[in-house]
Structure formats: structure tokens, C-alpha cells
Design a protein that fits this description.
It comes from Azotobacter bryophylli. This protein is α/β, with parallel strands linked by helices. It folds into two domains: 3-98 and 225-245, 3-Layer(aba) Sandwich (Udp-n-acetylmuramoylalanyl-d-glutamate--2,6- Diaminopimelate Ligase, Chain: A, domain 1), CATH 3.40.1390.30; 104-223, 3-Layer(aba) Sandwich (Udp-n-acetylmuramoylalanyl-d-glutamate--2,6- Diaminopimelate Ligase, Chain: A, domain 1). It is 37% helix and 24% strand. It has helices spanning 5-15, 48-57, 79-90, 100-104, 110-118, 146-157, 184-189, 202-211, 220-223, 226-239; strands at residues 3-4, 28-31, 36-37, 39-45, 61-66, 94-97, 121-125, 136-144, 162-164, 170-176, 194-197, 214-217, 242-245. α2 (48-57) packs parallel to α3 (79-90) and α5 (110-118) packs across α10.
Length: 252
């Protein structure tokens, strides 16, 4: 089975409600390849390693969370950017990328997908009154000591998180996948017991300690593996085409 590229892109963008959502990069089709799609390869970032793996398995389309053409990016097509684009164009592979719309989606979003794997019950947005808040707030079925919760995170993500441990058990949690350590202030305002994200800054440690909450940095890549897989599965099921996720490990 195959589906027209234009139809697949239209459905993905509709499903993720891309229209009207501000972002730091273009969401949707970033590089156009062949007109028909039979196989999707998904991954977190459109790195050269992922593109090479997609070529090897004969993918028609590469679906990622981190694509190209960021607002702060050098626009010149040189170096690794030239090599990546050359790989896509030479092999007529399309690149489809969704950033914030994939973080916030209520079904396939990175934050919801991570919560399901960790057994966290979603209560609502981290930013009250904002239904498209990137971060979420939720609760654990039973209170857990911070170290025990960190062990659960390590087991699920297969990566040891950095833990700044507070004295109190974790009942309510705020989280936002990726590089969202700056949202710790919103987490503190929400009155949660812990905040989980992908990365950490020097100031994050002080904020957690001085406000008495636990903080976990579980990896940018590790926390954002699940949304793109879920979106790829949705599209594959919707159009009866093939999908495979390829993980290119990243320690950050």
C-alpha cells in the first residue's frame, strides 16, 4: 500500500492542529521527496545517522520531532546541513517534522506519552488556562520517595536521571520533555512535589533546593522518543503503510 505524500502531510498537520501555533521552526513538510509514501522511518532528530539508516531500509519519508530551519540557525547550506539535505534529495526522501505541536498533543504528544509510560495521571496544563501549555501537571497513583521514582524513570527510559532530591515524597508532579528546565518556576508555583524534564541548568539546582521540590533531568532525547513513535504508528494505521522507529542514542 502507498499514500500520496500530500494527503499524508495534510492529515498529520490536521491531527496535530498545527495551524496557528507559534514555534521556532516550520512544522510540516520541510523537504519534499517522492510523491508516494509506502514506508515511514521515525526518529527524534533528523541527524545524519537517522537519514543513513532510513536510506538503508528504503524509507520514503523521515518523520522527526527535531527537524531543520530553526529561527536561530545559520541559513547557509554548508557542512553537515549540506550533507543532510543532499542525502534526502539524492534518495528522494521527504522530511516531515513537528516540534511544539507534537509536544502538546493530547494523544500522541511527548508529554502525554511519557506520562503513560511512567504511570502518571494527567490533571491538566502546567500553565493554568492555557490548553496548549507545553508542560503538564499530574499525580502518582501512590506517593513515592524521590529515589524510588528516579529508579522508575531509569527503568522506563533506560537512562539514569540526574536527581536533586527533596525531603518529601512525590505525590504531584509537573513535567515537560526536552530542554524545559526553565519551567521549574511554573512547577514551583503549581505547588508540586517534583519537576521532571530532559535537561538541567546550573540555576535549576538552586531553584529546586531552595523551594523544597525534587528535580529530575532525564535526558532531552530520552524523554522525547515516544511522541514521534506514536504519531508514526497513527499515520501507518490510518493509511495502511509501514512504519519503523529508529533510535539513534544521544546521552543528552
Amino acid at each position: 500500500m502507498s499514500i500520496a505524500l500530500s494527503v499524508l502531510v495534510e492529515e498529520a498537520s490536521r491531527y496535530l492542529a498545527v495551524s496557528g501555533m507559534p514555534d521556532y521552526c516550520p512544522n510540516g513538510l520541510q523537504v519534499e521527496g517522492r510523491a508516494e509514501v509506502r514506508q515511514i522511518v521515525s526518529g527524534v532528530t533528523a541527524s545524519q545517522a537517522l537519514l543513513d539508516a532510513a536510506v538503508e531500509v528504503g524509507a520514503d519519508l523521515v518523520l522527526v520531532h527535531h527537524g531543520y530551519f530553526w529561527k536561530s540557525e545559520n541559513p547557509c547550506v554548508v557542512g553537515s546541513k549540506q550533507r543532510r539535505l543532499k542525502t534526502l534529495l539524492t534518495h528522494e526522501m521527504s522530511l516531515l517534522a513537528y516540534h511544539l505541536p507534537l509536544d502538546v498533543h493530547p494523544e500522541v504528544g511527548n508529554n502525554v506519552q511519557l506520562a503513560r509510560r511512567l504511570g502518571v495521571l494527567v490533571e491538566g496544563p502546567l500553565e493554568p488556562g492555557n490548553p496548549r501549555s507545553v508542560g503538564l501537571v499530574g499525580s502518582l497513583p501512590e506517593p513515592m520517595e524521590p529515589l524510588d521514582f528516579a529508579r522508575r524513570v531509569a527503568h522506563v527510559l533506560q537512562r539514569e536521571p540526574l536527581l536533586i532530591e527533596a525531603a518529601r515524597p512525590i505525590r504531584r508532579l509537573a513535567w515537560c520533555t526536552g530542554a524545559a528546565q526553565g519551567y521549574i518556576e511554573q512547577a514551583i508555583a503549581a505547588g508540586v512535589d517534583a519537576y521532571l524534564t530532559g535537561e538541567v541548568s546550573e540555576s535549576t539546582v538552586h531553584s529546586a533546593r531552595e523551594n523544597g521540590i525534587s528535580f529530575l533531568a532525564a535526558g532531552h532525547h530520552a524523554t522525547e522518543r515516544y511522541g514521534v513513535q506514536a504519531l508514526g504508528d497513527y499515520l501507518a494505521s490510518r493509511f495502511s503503510i509501514e512504519h519503523r522507529f529508529i533510535d539513534c542514542p544521544n546521552p543528552v
